[in-house]
Predict the 3D structure of the following.
Amino acid sequence: MPFGRYAGRPLDALPDDYLEWLATLGNLREPLRTRVERECRRRFGCADAATPSLPLAPEIRLAAECIVSRGYRALATEHHPDAGGDHERMVALNVAHEALVGLLRGAA
């Protein structure tokens, strides 16, 4: 690693969360970007290094599901057609909610 908290350490010695953070940076220069992507694929088995598919700890998944459901309920109350909201927005909200719940359940 040429910079940061883990300067001088090889990529395979980096913790998973730090490697995941590196993969989300859009301004890494070559050849570091390629090496980070390769290490993500090796560790996490994901096709897209920018979105590693790390398994979530049960307490984190539960908290994320709670956040998603509370946010959904708040937005549904605001945008529901019976409350004066728009039908298209409610449909989009339902689709987004189903996608997020699906992602969370897939990360178990």
